[in-house]
Amino acid sequence: MKTTGDHQLVKQLNRSVLLRLLRMHPGLSRAQLAHSSGLTKSTVSLLVRELIDEKWLCDHDATSATGLGRPSTPVYIDANCRVLMGLEIAVAVLRLVGVNLLGAVLWSEEETLTSHEPDDVCRQAATMIGRACTRIQTNHLTLTGMGVGVPGAFNEATGNISFAANLGWWNISFQSKFTTAWTQAGLPPIPVHIQNEADTAALSEYEFGEVQATQSSLIYVTCDEGVGAGIILNDRLFTGRLGMAGEVGHSTLQLGGALCSCGRRGCAETFFGRKALDRLPDPSLGGHYLAMVLHNLWTSFDPYAFVLGGPSCERYPRIVAVAQTALQDYAQQAGMSAPPVRTARYGLWAPAVGAAALVLHHQLRPLHRDRTHRNKSDRTTAHIGDPNR
Prior knowledge:
Structural class: alpha/beta
Order of helices and strands: HHHEEEEEHEEEEHEHEEEHHHEHHEHH
CATH superfamily of the largest domain: ATPase, nucleotide binding domain
Number of helices: 13
Radius of gyration: 22 Å
Distance between the termini: 27 Å
Number of domains: 3
Strand order of the largest sheet: 5-4-3-6-10
Helix content: 40-55%
CATH topology of the largest domain: Nucleotidyltransferase, domain 5
Shape: globular
Largest sheet: 5 strands, mixed
């Protein structure tokens, strides 16, 4: 006999199937959704009505004929009612955005960090979020969830940041501190997800770009004070056992090389991190080392595409062109074709927009979310409030 939990999970799965279909193919009718999903027409009709009532979907009055019989009504993702909020904690600033379900930026705000102490950072972030919540309420919008991108290795199982070298953070119980600041600020109970900022930047491209229809993998490399990679494989973020996957800035490019902020020597960050680029007579030379890292990522993960972003790519755009050319040279030497390399569509705001996309990423993958919850000892720190709201 099926339990209530089984029924709820099946329902969540079916809802996510419909939402994902409409994100890739907007304007499908209920009959087309039933055909594409394999669900019965009655199930689709009930779920679509529920999703419309909850402001996930909308149907237009305009109808389109599909041969003989009653015309069908197209169904779309509702871009006008729900807001996803994303916060990036960078080395020097906080960036906060609100986006709709299709990834359009509704508003953005940036503040200089007043302190690098973790508790102070969380309190400053909570104050920013409080102002945004007031704006959302005033505009009669529904806040669906919150995502946070942090500049370090984040362990989802413990809620800790193992290290964020450029902030001087080591083994910080960040999730607990953020939850405390949230509660003290009197912020509303909503799902809150936390992840490394390179991972969230990757999601800005994957969830709101044009890759999902045909691709299931992408690697985003962010170049700033530090260097990191967000890796998406088989439609999932690949974060590793301790959340350290993608810390390519601390991969070794030279034995016994220059001292890195992490305490090791010869890390990639010492060749094309911001400080290294600022010291070079021609910063574009850093693009050759970036290409070396891209080449290693390509041979390790074989992604469909690379996306490059971060302040260094904005400040020194030539490093992107040099990296593209050098990567193609590596590929030609082996008689192969390298994955395409392009720049971030959201620019400097990619980690914040991607943090908002993190909410959607979890919502559309209930099986993954269910497994994640069961593996956590304290679920309340993963979601502040009801995770299914």
